[in-house]
């Protein structure tokens, strides 16, 4: 019987999937670690290879030098059942979305891609994103393995823990699942595959190469055998009204998915609200309003919090921060309408008054022999995870922002209860960010205290243009989005995820 302690699972009234014991859960940190492991798992596959893709860049290649298309073609030619489920939204401002369009269908023909594809469109909602990222290998077999995380297929993501080999460094994470919990990732794929929505302005949904060949899938019927000792629960964000088949996953209750799902946000809110000693967070976004309020409540309970974000945030965050500052500084009445994220930035700023709160980012020191003073290159935190009290964790595709949580974007995460796995993950992350070694004798309180102290020291070093010790440095949450350090690039260079 799993000891959930003070952070229980999400009940079936709010979640498609139940907690599942008996899993082998492994975390892969940064692109080299993940992509090499994925290629190895694919090379060992005997039955199937399915991918859920949100973003893919034209120049992306795996560490082996193969493109995504070559990898999928090779797997298909080996006799595997190969499928790709792509997000499509022509109204979304990114060149890295592989739309259902004549241009991309011609590309598939030229690439010789004769494996199976469906596009899941966001319809007329130009801001909506099917943001899930998952990979499924040998579905239904004893060797079934799934991967859930936040890494997008871009050349700059193929980074390692040293963050020295690319012009733009990115820190990211993925979870590998073997065992009963994998069936729910399969169920999510089948549910989306079968009801993938067509482009509203192009044509009726025409799977590649045809609907007859890329036909509907049967939902899984069997829970995989136990492969390890970790209990986990797959959580999601699903917008209401886009899927309607409430066929349940094996051993799970039927869930009215037509109403949408927000089990992912509920998992975070519950963990932060019940935290007793420590909260460690990595996120591309600086927080969602209700979760920031939950963090403040935790800080009042003397919970130690370390929150790592990109030091140089995306343009959208910079824009929203400037709107919030402009609104706050208005002196004439009546004021313009309050910006959408004004309260969120105000709540984040309030956390600065708590000495047990460390808001931080990551940067690489670049030595400059000619000027005898270093410069710094930001390590963009694209990772989306949290570890609470050294035994609970959450990792996946969801950013800590309202659109990733409140029945808007499609997201998929895994929450787990396992002190051994959680502490191994925390030590691995802390070692990378601090360049210090952590052993089993280091408790979560010790690790967060060391990170907090080092972040503060490095912030002073950066102000003095001195080399950093490790990567982590402190940010001021009151100024986030205003680019505190003068050596930051112009905000127009920031990229959307």
Describe this structure in words.
This protein has 497 residues and is α+β, with helices and mostly antiparallel strands. The protein folds into two domains: 213 residues, Endonuclease, Chain A (2-Layer Sandwich); 229 residues, 2-Layer Sandwich (Endonuclease, Chain A), CATH 3.30.870. The chain is built from eleven helices and 17 strands. A hairpin with a 7-residue loop joins strand 5 and strand 6. Helix 5 runs parallel beside helix 6, helix 6 packs parallel to helix 8 and helix 10 runs parallel beside helix 11.
Index terms:
497 residues, 17-stranded mixed beta sheet, globular, alpha+beta, Endonuclease, Chain A, single chain, 2 domains, 11 helices
Q: What amount of the residues lies in strands?
A: 15-25%
Q: Give the C-alpha Rg.
A: 22 Å
The structure class reads alpha+beta
Quaternary state of this entry equals: single chain
How many individual helices? 11
Which homologous superfamily in CATH is the superfamily of the largest domain? Endonuclease Chain A
């Amino acid at each position: 019987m799993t000891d959930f302690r003070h952070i229980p699972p999400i009940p079936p009234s709010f979640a498609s999937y139940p907690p599942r014991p008996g899993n082998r859960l492994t975390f892969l940190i940064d692109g080299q670690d993940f992509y090499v492991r994925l290629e190895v798992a694919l090379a060992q596959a005997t039955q199937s290879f399915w991918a859920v893709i949100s973003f893919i860049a034209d120049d992306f290649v795996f560490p082996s030098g193969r493109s995504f298309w070559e990898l999928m073609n090779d797997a298909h030619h080996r006799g595997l059942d190969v499928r790709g489920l792509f997000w499509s939204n022509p109204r979304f401002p990114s060149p890295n979305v592989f739309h259902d369009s004549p241009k991309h269908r011609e590309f598939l023909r030229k690439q010789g891609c004769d494996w199976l594809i469906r596009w899941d469109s966001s319809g007329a909602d130009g801001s909506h994103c099917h943001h899930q990222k998952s990979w499924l290998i040998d579905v239904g077999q004893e060797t079934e393995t799934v991967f859930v995380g936040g890494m997008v297929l871009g050349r700059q993501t193929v980074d390692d823990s040293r963050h020295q080999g690319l012009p733009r460094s990115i820190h990211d994470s993925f979870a590998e699942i073997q065992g009963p919990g994998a069936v729910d990732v399969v169920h999510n794929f089948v549910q989306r595959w079968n009801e993938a929505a067509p482009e509203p302005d192009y044509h009726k949904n025409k799977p590649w190469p045809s609907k007859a060949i890329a036909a509907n899938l049967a939902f899984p019927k069997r829970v995989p055998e136990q492969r390890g000792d970790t209990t986990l629960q797959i959580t999601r964000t699903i917008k209401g009204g886009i899927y309607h088949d409430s066929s349940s996953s094996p051993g799970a209750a039927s869930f009215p998915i037509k109403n949408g799902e927000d089990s992912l946000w509920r998992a975070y809110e519950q963990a932060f609200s019940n935290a007793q000693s420590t909260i460690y967070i990595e996120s591309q976004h600086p927080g969602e309003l209700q979760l920031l309020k939950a963090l403040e409540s935790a800080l009042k309970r003397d919970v130690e919090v370390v929150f790592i974000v990109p030091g140089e945030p995306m343009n959208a965050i910079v824009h929203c921060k400037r709107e919030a500052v402009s609104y706050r500084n208005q002196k004439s009445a009546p004021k313009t309408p309050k910006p959408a994220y004004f309260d969120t930035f105000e709540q984040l700023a309030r956390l600065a008054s708590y000495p047990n709160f460390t808001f931080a980012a990551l940067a690489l020191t670049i030595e400059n022999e000619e000027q005898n003073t270093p410069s710094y290159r930001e390590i963009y935190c694209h990772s989306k995870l949290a570890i609470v009290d050294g035994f609970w964790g959450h990792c996946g595709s969801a950013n800590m922002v309202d659109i990733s949580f409140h029945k808007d974007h499609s997201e998929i995460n895994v929450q787990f209860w396992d002190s051994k796995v959680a502490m191994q993950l925390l030590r691995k992350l802390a070692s990378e960010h601090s360049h210090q070694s952590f052993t089993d004798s280091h408790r979560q309180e010790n690790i967060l205290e060391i990170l907090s102290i080092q972040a503060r020291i490095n912030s002073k070093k950066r102000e003095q243009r001195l080399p950093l010790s490790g990567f982590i440095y402190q940010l001021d949450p009151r100024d986030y989005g205003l680019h505190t350090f003068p050596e930051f690039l112009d905000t127009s260079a920031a990229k959307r995820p």
